[in-house]
Amino acid sequence: MTVTVEGLNIYYERSVGEGTPIVIMHGWGCSVETVRRVFDKLAASGRTVIAFDFPGFGRSDLPPVAFSTFDYARVALGFFAATGIEKPDVIAHSFGGRVAIILASENAVNRLLLVDAAGMKPRRGIFKRLKILSYKLRKRMGLNVERCGSADYRALSGVMRETFVRVVNEHLDKLLPLVSRPTLLVWGERDNDTPLYMAKRMNRKLPDSALIVIKNSGHFSFLDDTATFVSVVAAFFAEEQ
């Protein structure tokens, strides 16, 4: 199915179920297909589940200009309104976590589950600082800097490359104390993209949160151990009888 938000066709899927809707927000470079396994298992349990492709991903339209995380959050709110969703429970992975943090800080969600989420300002070790210095030096000298970026950056072009640069340089640490809704952090023990120290820092800054670490899992912990992840989701989002 598609719905139009701000002139953009947004692809989404929705199960027929009961209770507070659960909205799943995918990570960077991903889509509804990435979260298919979790979507199907939650839908089979009888819950209403919605997953959608952010602009520029999957089967949704490209954004007309480079988007910031706040632009994506605005579109997400527009998607909620267009599909009749009000204060859903939200599962957000990686980049989707950035968007969800903004929504939660604006009290637009019921309960929030962040899985291997991005948005925290990273530590900069000596090698990272040297890499940045090398990039700036090569750019100043007019040398090729194409291979200086991350694999995600090099795989992009046009508006999505500009979007990536905007998004990864937006740090949302200051919004965390504004998230008043119950929040569960679920993290892969071996996540190298958004390391566990970020989860621990989030947990300290969030007013009402807890952290669960999934052993032997990486940045896609919900795929590495889907059974454990879904059981955690079901317990956290259990409806009061």
Task: Give a short overview.
The chain is an alpha/beta fold. Helix content is 37%, strand content 19%.
Report what the structure shows.
The chain is of the alpha/beta class. The protein has one domain: Rossmann fold. It is built from 9 helices and 8 strands. The chain has helices spanning 36-44, 69-82, 95-105, 126-140, 151-154, 158-168, 196-205, 221-224, 226-236; strands spanning 2-5, 8-14, 18-25, 47-52, 89-93, 112-115, 183-188, 209-214. An 8-stranded mixed sheet has the order 1-2-4-3-5-6-7-8, with helices on both faces. β7 (183-188), α7 (196-205) and β8 (209-214) form a beta-alpha-beta unit. α1 crosses α9 (226-236) and α2 (69-82) crosses α3. The protein starts with a strand and ends in a 5-residue tail after the last helix.
Helix and strand layout, with pairings?
Elements: E1 2-5, E2 8-14, E3 18-25, H1 36-44, E4 47-52, H2 69-82, E5 89-93, H3 95-105, E6 112-115, H4 126-140, H5 151-154, H6 158-168, E7 183-188, H7 196-205, E8 209-214, H8 221-224, H9 226-236
Parallel strand pairs: 3-4, 3-5, 5-6, 6-7, 7-8
Antiparallel strand pairs: 1-2, 2-4
Number of domains: 1
- Class per helix and strand makeup: alpha/beta
In which order are the strands of the major sheet placed?
A: 1-2-4-3-5-6-7-8
What are the low-pLDDT stretches, counting only 5+ consecutive residues below 50?
125-137, 144-150
What portion of residues is helical?
Answer: 25-40%
Descriptive labels:
241 residues; 19% strand; 8 strands; alpha/beta; Rossmann fold
